[in-house]
Write a structure and sequence with these properties.
about 400 residues, alpha/beta, Rossmann fold, eight-stranded mixed beta sheet, globular
Length: about 400
Amino acid sequence: MSGAGFSGHDTGSSAPQMPPLVRPTHQTPRPGPTLRDEHNVTQPIPFERPLETRTTTTLEATPAEAETPLGPTGRPMPVFPEPTPLVEHGGARVISMCNQKGGVGKTTTTINLGASLAELGRRVLLVDFDPQGSLSVGLGLNPHEMDLTIYNLLMDRETTLDEVVVPSGIEGMDLLPSNIDLSAAEVQLVHEVAREQTLQRVLAPALEHYDIILIDCQPSLGLLTVNALTASDGVIVPLECEYFALRGVALLKTTIDKVRERLNPKLEIDGVLGTMFDGRTLHSREVMERLVSAWGDTVFHTVIRRTVKFSDATVAGEPITSYASSSTGADAYRQLAKEVLTRWPAEWACRPRTACSGRPPTPHPRRRCRSSASAASGPWPTTPSPPDRASPVAGCDTTRR
């Protein structure tokens, strides 16, 4: 290409002949959405940070608040007191571990929170309400070799609670096992009268003999989960600190509100628990920040961090509090147990008692089966019976109904 086109007068265009870069002010503006202020169109919307509010808060903070370290939730971490020892047992508070997303730590939290509460002197019953039987496997059982499970308790009125309860291997904690048979109950209960109250009916005799009942729900919002919510006093929502886990919480909140409105007025959310938290990643910190901003003080101060000890404890078939008692995971669940007891109202232990048979359900160690993963770990321990379990609970109606 020669330079003649740039120097001649008959070819090309000279600079004065180029169209102007700035639109003339006298040009008629186009109709439609462009009739807006030029500043709003060409410049981004300014983001004003509340500097004055933050400065005021900092200046007004007391010396005690300034010295309190921040926890992983971004809030000051309180010190939870040691719970008061119980003089007598009974009047159980029923808690469901619920989240329709799988793999968020429901079963792990049920096992380790139950074991931590048992360490604090509470009598705990774990209910495996998932057809996968993960809770039973996590405590060293082979659910496929169980003679009786919670399915028999739900569908057969001749089966009693003490025939199904088995020891967990942890003192003060028992288990209602489950297996794949429970998946058939969701279909068979459809035609039952008051099908949503079936679990509440079968757990009624256990309220007099335990302090806490923890229900491990399946990862769905079907009829089994509705049964668990109907039978519960509160809900703990384990939530993995990942974006996909955060998206489904709104749907769970809607389901809980419907159950409270139509079936169980006393149901409340005890707390949202952040699990699998990794403070080294920006994503985990951002999810936790979004969680606290959406749920506020409902989010537990305690956060469960990632550690391989949880997987090792599952293979061993025991809680992390006994498998790796000094690990950070065990300490986190012990702290969670104290925080849970601190949040519960004092009057929950004094609620009206349900008529029962006058004797606690006796676990059957002969039906405890070994899992293939821990067949060489020796004989299974049984749950020792406290001295007062042979006598009826005070105030309990001893007439079988």
